[in-house]
Design brief:
6 copies of one chain form a homohexamer.
Chain A lengths: L3 E6 L6 H11 L4 E7 L10 H12 L5 E6 L3 H7 L4 E6 L2 H17 L4 E6 L9 H9 L10 H10 L4
Parallel strand pairs in A: 1-2, 1-4, 2-3, 4-5
């Protein structure tokens, strides 16, 4: 039986921190599905399609990675995909708390679904999608934080080219 | 002298976690006033009146509970009600920090007012009004988290019936 | 019915931070029992009897306060005393976490027992019995932190007079 | 060589907590530049010019203080001003985490820039600009928290005079 | 290729919280090795052999579980066992911090070794081996927290039968 | 006037994390005094003299650094040295809390003394003297964490050569 894990998130946009988690997850599972949250209630800079497109581009070299867009309850999505785990990266205490509550809630909604937490690489501890967006808006260089394709899309989006 | 405690909050909407705190407070005080924040600055899904109505319905069986709407400074409200304590439920570290600052500020504004913290029941650690709203929006079942009357009102509000 | 609360602790020795919690508890309950932990497993500078003696001295002016020594499970002690609540003072996040686990465990051992948390007065946020002991050992003045009787006993104990 | 530090922030509006940090910084550096963030993306009650004006008024008696408005990346600003350090005040754990990430990110963007953290005075632990605004909106008195000039401006802004 | 995970710990003694993590790990890996730390520097109530014996007894019904004693560096042990991950259970913020540092250090010592964190079941959030020992010493009942065999061994060890 | 800062600690033994803080402090102050705590109450692997010796060796190339041993109250030591600040490195939330309490206490004991916190370099976030000792005891290599002289002394001390 193929062991499938789902790595859900906004990926608005994907950073090297996210890609590090994806690569490490591939050592543990047969397939990793990157699931882009298409949540109409949460504001995002990029549309779900644009976020999907960036993820496809920057993960094209990684085997066993699938990119997908999902809406609805995460626990239902996991079940439909026959996945055995949710993957989450942790950077800080506040991440931990929020994710802890989410994991307990998801376990309540479906006791069979497991959430696995990976510590963010120390190199990316300071990194978040929102910080990257802020730096681009302030005309800073983000090539240390995101792939060049993502950097280009960020500049286009923010009309800075 | 009657010992009165005030349990303030948004209750947008009331959950089983809130009701657990109310019931436990009744063991300690002669009367518990559930005080609905009518704060025009803070966005809420339900109006103050709707939140009041739901609280009235779900606490009707509890003796010595009063539901009220308040605006203005909490410390003034406490004083007007001749209450001796503010009741707060704590779930997590971030709750703790924010509530800690609020309690210090309230003590500064009126040194006679005491804030008492109760730990949330472990069964409701993952529970918050915002999570309940999110689950309903994603068409999930929330009957484990809120009374059926509240679940019905949530579905009506979000036009999901 | 008399409302009794128990304020348990090591009190090794009692500080102004502890006394502040006692005084504030008296506004909420008819009687407050300060319960000195006589735990042979935990090292203390003062014996349980010495800690009891100091508490008696410094609370003699407070009405409705009782000092006691206890061993065994706290939940059994609470029940025997017909108390309705355990009082705890919180200073910091690490206090919070430990006390949170203790409160959940005590609720598991006896669901009827409630733990109430009070925020430490901002004046005493930095204060702990161990800091006071350390300062006395380093020959510093602790009269801002403990009553003079306790300061005298600390110096005697540490052979510094 | 003159040692210059930059104290960046929103100062929306300046509180006694901020002024305490400024005064203490002056003991350590030859000059302190209070740098008002003019961030069009972040909503503020007062315009950058109004915040600048209030800071000028309330720091006029302090020698070696300069008030400035800045936009763009903080690390670039620091470099242009030939400053050797960023000053930050910490109140709580959540401050700490966010500031920790910012400090690591700024060090990544320019390894020569040092962030120094000062603990907020215990008297101002509960104090934040947003709490002050909330109290004024609820018609409370904030003269313990901000200079009278700032209190007056707050009331004007919120049309409460 | 068989996917092996190592679940290291003191297990002094094993609790239902540990067993819950083991069972959930078995859903994710082909084999789980429970690795008892035989650390002569750290004081334990039970010897490594006694802790091993208790784990063997209480996991005998679980397929694909191996119990082992190890000393030396965890990263070397993982490599020798050809394991792909270290499993850790998280209960609270302080666990998180310590484990975060350990995970970063282990990654530094061997970049190929992954640490996976699982949230402790809400039912066991308050549970720790040291709390269980304390309750037995105070003659409380721990059958809700550990298997009866472990409870018996605890009483024997503490000469309480 | 020469600006002097004191960097106090156990340094049992000094690590690259400590040295990073020293070097960064030298950019801000005219002189940095590394003050080794000679606390007879706190157990240490190395004597105060041995810790002093190691610090002297590994800081010999750094200008404006002085190494010293001190006992007694830190605030008195600071005053005697005419220092204007205490330097502390922060790695994690638990560091933060403890240091926060120490800083408030020291300010209470002497309001003129300022504590400045620097974030530990991300490269050394996982690093502590106790982890280094543990790795050496388990025969691991610590040359990435401490200078070779310190590594040699650690092996001698633990009779591992």
């Amino acid at each position: 039986m193929k062991r499938i894990a789902v790595y859900p998130g906004s990926f608005d946009p994907v950073t090297y921190g996210h890609l590090d988690i994806v690569k490490r997850s591939l050592e543990l599972f047969d397939q990793v599905i990157i699931a882009v949250l298409s949540n109409t209630m949460k504001k995002s800079l990029f549309t779900a399609d644009e976020r999907y497109d960036m993820l496809m581009k920057v993960t094209s070299v990684l085997p066993n990675v699938q990119v997908d867009i999902f809406s609805g309850l995460l626990v239902d999505y996991i079940k439909n995909k026959s996945a055995i785990a949710i993957i989450k990266g942790l950077r800080a205490i506040s991440d931990f708390e929020h994710e802890f509550q989410m994991a307990l809630m998801n376990k309540k909604l479906n006791p069979k679904i497991e959430t696995l937490f990976m510590m963010t690489n120390e190199k990316y501890l300071y990194l978040s999608s929102s910080m990257v967006k802020e730096i681009v808006e302030l005309k800073g260089n983000v090539l240390d934080f995101v792939p060049s394709y993502v950097s280009k899309k960020l500049k286009e989006k923010l009309n800075l080219n």
